[in-house]
Amino acid sequence: PLNLAEIQRLVDRADRGGTFGGDLILGNNQTATLGPTKITGNVSLDSGSVLTMTGDLHVAGNFTCNQGEVRLDAGYGDGSGVIVVDGTASVVNNCDLKGSGHQDSYLMLLSRFPARKSAGPAIHLKNLSNAIDKAIIYAHFGEVLLENNLTVHQVTGAQVKLKNQAEVIYESGLVGVTFTSGPTGGWVVERWQEVP
Questions:
Q1: Which helix (H) or strand (E) holds 7?
Q2: pTM (predicted TM-score)
Q3: Which of 56, 71, 75, 109 could form an SS bridge with 98, CB 3.0 to 4.6 Å?
Q4: How far, in Å, are 45, 46, 75, 94, 163 from residue 149 at the CA level?
């Protein structure tokens, strides 16, 4: 797992690229290319919208993707990028999170939202019939909720809940993922418990 200093380095790297003031809202079929950037509000992607990242993003508010797509620019090559969200993240209804197109490129969605259980999940993935196999899901302080027919290949959270046909299939080799100027990490199962 990432430590707080590593997460702060990711935030600082995005913030150094400049600031997008307010909310970034991409409606139906709209596109934008952005990064590295700090977004001072929320990010919302709707049906058919595409956000292409040319650098890491730091979202000071919440992140919502509903039938949109976030992808890394091809210039990332075999490198990986990150979206750090201070609030909650919701990826629903076949939203797609993609690397650069290179087999070793991943997009990390990292939430710093501190709450567990009572305030809802830090990251919520739902109704993603497409496997988001080039995404790394990371909630440092909070819960990750995966539900309704989805498959992810890496998830880390203070608590991870799976509902209704959700699967986590850990992909070997993720320990060696290269973030273009950031950290890499690994994982260890410390305890396992089925929750009814």
A1: helix 4-15
A2: 0.83
A3: 71
A4: 21, 20, 32, 10, 9
* Closest-CA residue to 9 (of 70, 82, 73, 77): 82
12: tokens are: 């600082």
Which of 31, 86, 82 lies closest to 62 in space, CA to CA?
Answer: 86
**Radius of gyration in angstroms for the set of CA atoms belonging to the chain, rounded to a whole number:** 15
The amino acid that residue 192 corresponds to is: W
Q: Which amino acid is at 63?
A: F
